[in-house]
Design goal:
This protein has 145 residues and is α+β, with helices and mostly antiparallel strands. 17% of the residues lie in helices and 36% in strands. The chain has 2 helices and 6 strands. Strands 1, 2, 3, 4, 5 and 6 form a 6-stranded antiparallel sheet that branches. Strand 4 and strand 5 form a beta hairpin. The model has no long low-confidence stretch (mean pLDDT 92).
Length: 145
């Protein structure tokens, strides 16, 4: 088995991402996570069209740790699969400084459910998808209920 890894890419900050306080607006972090999902599917799975994204978003969480200010210029986002079930899987995200990955701005997660848009119902995750993401599955322990 190959070593597990995170998919990482750079996000350039745009002036429009800022709020009146001079830092990236809280809602924009969710857009960064959305970009992470898209970049993962494009670069890891070779997806090039919306039809290649056979899932719906079921949940998103974001932990704001430090504000991102414009002088950062760009940040690094890492994305990996932290849980995979029968019909759903979880992406985890981490946004850090480019020059210092220990400087974490935010972490988060999202749950995606495989979905048949024509039938309007959830689907089991195909084995081919599991195989394609295998190198990026770094399972997190589930919290005790």
């Amino acid at each position: 088995m190959s070593q597990r890894k995170k998919f990482s890419f750079t996000i350039s900050l745009r002036f429009r991402d800022l709020d009146a306080m001079g830092h990236v607006n809280n809602a924009v972090y969710l857009t960064y996570f959305e970009e992470g999902r898209k970049e993962f599917f494009v670069h890891v799975l070779g997806s090039n069209s919306p039809e290649d994204f056979p899932f719906i978003l079921a949940q998103v969480t974001c932990n704001y740790i430090r504000p991102i200010e414009l002088q950062e210029g760009a940040v690094r986002e890492s994305v990996w699969v932290s849980k995979i079930g029968t019909k759903s899987f979880m992406f985890s995200y981490e946004i850090t400084r480019i020059d210092d990955p220990s400087w974490v701005f935010s972490t988060g997660s999202s749950v995606q459910v495989f979905f048949d848009y024509k039938e309007g119902k959830s689907l089991p995750i195909p084995d081919t998808f599991r195989e394609m993401i295998a190198d990026y599955v770094i399972e997190s322990p589930s919290p005790e209920n």
